[in-house]
Write a structure and sequence with these properties.
alpha/beta
């Protein structure tokens, strides 16, 4: 979408193509409503308070005797049915804060900016500069740019002259581009954006647009190519796993063979030791027999 660029006098000086990722996004009314409800809820202080019957300062004596009056039985003047008593189920301090993911908040801003651009409520200006605070000059400039409509002026940085010039105009508000929010976007008829403020908006609302386009491109890949790539990947993993399993099995077999060989060697060594011991015992027996024969002789 291409829009003209004006100066403060209302004269066209150039044209500009709006970023499609910000000003041509999908309009999500439900998301904008959720963001608006969140912002309005977060602006509530929640400091309301009403005293209950246990907090009211009153006498604790029984107001009249239990029997004999013909009236209903009562004990405390603090009961909610009496004037000056406590409030039943009254409000207490609480937080109304609501949470919303950052991507959803920014998507809501894109939806609002797209709706404004579609309706022709975006006004681009080259710059907004004033020599001195003058409400009359600001009124004249807004008449040339937006006519009778209310206007939200986005600023790249703080400018006291511009802010003071627009402060006394009920239908005009100045806002830093970094503080762009859904309530101000939907609350004013026209949005006046200088080129410097447009750069800031593109900086923080256009970052995630590239990621979304990248995901969109991945979604457009041919299913057959995706399936073939997946099959090749699975085959490679299977082959690698089989090779690893074969190497592990071979290693285990080698270890087992070494263990068996070691056991056999130990057994053979043990048999030789036993045989040598038996021979020594036999020799000792022969020596004892010879000694006995000599003694008898």
């Amino acid at each position: 979408m291409e829009l003209p660029i004006y100066n403060l006098a209302g004269e066209q000086v150039d044209r500009m193509e709006l970023p499609a990722g910000i000003f041509a996004a999908k309009i999500n009314n439900g998301l904008m409503h959720q963001a608006l409800v969140r912002q309005l809820a977060n602006s509530r202080k929640g400091t309301h308070k009403a005293k209950g019957r246990s907090e009211v300062r009153y006498s604790t004596t029984k107001i009249y005797r239990q029997k004999g009056t013909g009236r209903a039985r009562h004990g405390s003047r603090r009961a909610p049915i009496f004037v000056g008593g406590g409030v039943a189920h009254g409000p207490h301090p609480r937080s109304y804060a609501k949470k919303m993911p950052r991507k959803m908040r920014r998507a809501a801003l894109r939806s609002a900016l797209t709706a404004k651009a579609t309706a022709g409520d975006i006004v681009l200006i080259d710059r907004i500069v004033m020599d001195r605070p003058k409400t009359k000059d600001m009124v004249a400039a807004m008449d040339q740019l937006v006519g009778d409509s209310s206007a939200l002026i986005l600023m790249a940085e703080q400018d006291e002259n511009v802010e003071l010039s627009a402060r006394n105009i009920p239908t005009v508000k100045t806002l830093r581009a970094n503080y762009l929010n859904i309530r101000d976007l939907l609350g004013f008829g026209k949005v006046v954006i200088p080129l410097a403020a447009m750069e800031i908006i593109t900086g923080f609302l256009g970052r995630e647009d590239e990621e979304w386009e990248y995901d969109y491109e991945l979604a457009d890949v041919d299913e057959d190519e995706t399936m073939a790539a997946a099959v090749e990947s699975v085959e490679e993993e299977t082959t690698t796993a089989a090779t690893m399993d074969t190497d592990e099995v071979a290693t285990e077999l080698d270890v087992e063979e070494d263990a068996v060989t070691a056991v056999e060697d130990e057994e053979a060594t043990g048999d030789d030791v036993v045989a040598d011991t038996d021979e020594e015992v036999e020799v000792d027996d022969d020596d004892e027999t010879t000694t006995e024969e000599e003694e008898e002789a």
